[in-house]
Automatic annotation (TrEMBL):
<feature type="signal peptide">
    <location>
        <begin position="1"/>
        <end position="31"/>
    </location>
</feature>
<feature type="domain" description="Multidrug resistance protein MdtA-like C-terminal permuted SH3">
    <location>
        <begin position="312"/>
        <end position="371"/>
    </location>
</feature>
<dbReference type="Pfam" id="PF25944">
    <property type="entry name" value="Beta-barrel_RND"/>
</dbReference>
<feature type="domain" description="Multidrug resistance protein MdtA-like alpha-helical hairpin">
    <location>
        <begin position="112"/>
        <end position="181"/>
    </location>
</feature>
<dbReference type="Pfam" id="PF25967">
    <property type="entry name" value="RND-MFP_C"/>
</dbReference>
<dbReference type="Pfam" id="PF25876">
    <property type="entry name" value="HH_MFP_RND"/>
</dbReference>
<dbReference type="GO" id="GO:0046677">
    <property type="term" value="P:response to antibiotic"/>
</dbReference>
<dbReference type="InterPro" id="IPR058627">
    <property type="entry name" value="MdtA-like_C"/>
</dbReference>
<dbReference type="Pfam" id="PF25917">
    <property type="entry name" value="BSH_RND"/>
</dbReference>
<feature type="region of interest" description="Disordered">
    <location>
        <begin position="383"/>
        <end position="416"/>
    </location>
</feature>
<dbReference type="InterPro" id="IPR058626">
    <property type="entry name" value="MdtA-like_b-barrel"/>
</dbReference>
<dbReference type="InterPro" id="IPR058624">
    <property type="entry name" value="MdtA-like_HH"/>
</dbReference>
<dbReference type="GO" id="GO:0022857">
    <property type="term" value="F:transmembrane transporter activity"/>
</dbReference>
<comment type="similarity">
    <text>Belongs to the membrane fusion protein (MFP) (TC 8.A.1) family.</text>
</comment>
<dbReference type="GO" id="GO:0005886">
    <property type="term" value="C:plasma membrane"/>
</dbReference>
<keyword id="KW-0732">Signal</keyword>
<dbReference type="GO" id="GO:0030313">
    <property type="term" value="C:cell envelope"/>
</dbReference>
Length: 416
């Protein structure tokens, strides 16, 4: 019997051991994958939950607004003449009665003298006609003069009286024109630059505008409300989802461009009853005390209107509301600490929270933190209450955007 070559024996031995090794590895892998039935692949998801509690929630509405002087007066020349000089400092506060400009008074002084001379002439004429009438009356009674002579004397006396009245009017007009050469401020306010230089000839009709004075206290803040916003508010009021303060007594605060809040609060003192045909909005105006002159005309600010309430409103953190394929939803936790998906209808934002107008009820628990990892009908590990938002809602978070202001237009008082 011949033995096989040594190399062939070694090859058969290696293939046999290799197959045995592969079989053992396969059995070990299968044994590692098999686990007893009923053991979950991962532990429960850790979440925080909150209990839904409806309550009356004050809401603010913010509008883009612009400041306006409550009294903006254009200082104009009322007579034609040469502008002698400006006697105020441009850009400074001026007081009521303070002289701003002086015009050349000489022509007006001369006109006044002429008017006075004409008045004296007419007064002299009146004196003569009165004396003539006094002589004619007794002679007419004695039939020494005709009735026509008496009528003529009486008429001359009346004409002379009328001429004196007209001459007195000319004198008063000349005095007024002379007084107009001294141009004064009619109010306390901030002065603008001079539009005419010293020595310029100004005419009341063409280039009579000299400067402008702006009253700073009080200051007005104007903002506009669209028709869609008004209709939306009216709908929410009818559905008892929104309540305006009694007598529509809203409180308005101003947020400046750098985010600071103007210290004084104001109140709405005017709402235009008609819509603008150009913008489809109507004007609302609030008045603010501004004794220090902090607010200046023309500033762009944010007007925050407070006083409205959403009764029995449900607020949930924004991170608790998830976006599904067709709608928004939250995870509702049942008595067995399992999550069930619930479709909700979100409303406006309120700081870091979201108004829920439909889908949730008082006393229900919803998942807040960890909601994105939740699987339906699986046990949850509730670790506590939701953690605070990274930025408080009361600081720089956006306020609820306005939708409607129907009561401001109608003037109705809305109560619960």
């Amino acid at each position: 019997m011949k033995c096989a070559p040594l190399n062939a024996c070694l090859q058969r031995f290696s293939r046999g051991h290799l197959g045995l090794a592969l079989a053992c590895a396969t059995l070990a892998l299968c044994a590692g994958c098999h686990k007893p039935a009923g053991l979950p692949s991962t532990g429960p998801v850790e979440v925080t939950v909150m209990t839904v509690e409806p309550h009356d929630t004050p809401v603010d509405f913010e509008f883009t607004a612009q400041t306006e002087s409550s009294r903006e007066v254009q200082i104009r020349a009322r007579v034609d003449g040469f502008l002698d000089r400006r006697v105020y400092t441009e850009g400074q506060l001026v007081h009521a009665g303070q002289t701003l400009f002086l015009m050349d008074p000489k022509p007006f002084e001369a006109a006044l003298q002429t008017a006075k001379g004409q008045l004296a002439q007419q007064q002299a004429r009146l004196y003569v006609t009165k004396a003539n009438l006094a002589r004619v009356i007794p002679l007419a009674k004695q039939n020494a003069l005709s009735q026509k002579d008496l009528d003529d004397a009486t008429g001359n006396e009346k004409q002379a009286e009328a001429a004196v009245i007209a001459a007195q009017g000319e004198v008063e007009t000349a005095q007024l024109n002379l007084s107009y050469t001294t141009i004064k401020s009619p109010l306390n306010g901030l002065s603008s630059f001079a539009k005419q230089q010293d020595g310029s000839y100004v005419t009341a009709a063409a280039n009579g505008l000299l400067t402008t004075v702006y009253q700073l206290d009080p200051m007005w803040v104007n903002f506009s409300v669209s028709e869609n916003e008004l209709l939306g508010y009216r709908s929410q009021i009818e559905k008892k989802q929104l309540v305006f303060p009694p007598n529509n007594d809203f409180e308005v605060s101003v947020v400046l461009a750098d985010g600071t809040v103007f210290p004084a609060t104001g109140h709405i003192n005017f709402a235009n009853p008609a819509f603008s045909t150009e913008t489809g909005t109507f004007l609302v105006r609030a008045s603010f005390a501004n004794p220090q002159g902090t607010l200046r005309p023309g500033q762009f600010v944010r007007a925050r209107v407070s006083g409205a309430i959403r009764p029995n409103a449900i607020l949930v953190p924004q991170r608790a509301v998830l976006q599904g394929a067709k709608s928004h939803f939250v995870w509702v936790v049942d008595n067995e600490s399992k999550a069930r998906q619930r479709v909700v209808e979100p409303g406006e934002w309120h700081g870091d929270d979201w108004f829920i107008t439909d889908g949730l009820h008082s006393g229900e628990r919803i998942v807040v933190d960890g909601a994105i990892r939740v699987i339906a009908d699986t046990p949850l590990k509730i670790t506590g209450a939701p953690r605070p938002a990274s930025q408080p809602a009361a600081s720089n978070a956006p306020r609820e955007e306005p939708q409607h202001l129907a009561a401001w237009q109608s003037g109705e008082t809305v109560t619960k």
